[in-house]
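anyone seen this seq b4? input:
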Amino acid sequence: MKNLAQIGIIGGSGFYDFFGPDAKEVDIKTEFGKPSDKITIGNAFGKKVAFLPRHQRRHIIPPHNVPFKANLAALKEIGVKTVIATSTAGSLKQKIRPNDFVICDQFVDRTKQRDDTYFHGPKVAHIEAAYPYCQELRKLATLQAKKLGYRVHPKGTVVIIEGPRFATVAESMSYSKMGCDIINMTQYPEMVLAAELGICYVNISIVTDYDSGIYAGTKVEPVSVEQILTNFKKNNERVKKLISEIIKNLPAERTCNCQQKAKRAVI
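predicted toks r here
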């Protein structure tokens, strides 16, 4: 199935209209199981693009049960070299407002029960994670967001919690004090698995709310499912425009070191 697509989009179910009537679905089973859903493949802006809904198209997979390894392995199998991922996030800093975009450059893992590597032996690899996101893709995403006039933060540290519950006030305040900017439930181990496979990965975080720690300090409205859904829907078209511009301006050849990092990792 190689060469069916070069670019992969992982996100919510609002991206099916990227493709024309020639789009097709492929049903893949990897050695790590089946991905979240069938993968839609089609042409977008003259490039072969694949879309995979992280939580399944009916949003029936909770954050802690997303088949991250199968998702990335399936995209790799069809030829994807670049992944543009979207996710919602709560703000841990007052300067990062709801409806802002954050192009993360760092993460803190606070998950508990996720299989986060393809290497359990006898093949061993230690992926470099000092800068876990593709730096060239991050620059491109930031540039295109600014051209569109969006409020975008060109870097940020995301803390990823297990979910599906939200953080307590004490947890949220501690994450903020340790220097984290936003909070999310799905970015880890997605970006690390992409790195192990030599896939360039960028995440566009859509800030939907202030997390509960900010609420405790400022008395702004605390996080709720209703608020997240409202702000996500409000920003759905904006994030699609941004991804469109990233795809249009993505260079034909990669100039980053993502492939080299994956090769260097193997013992």
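The mean pLDDT is 92. Residues 225-249 form the longest helix (25 residues). kinda curious what u guys think
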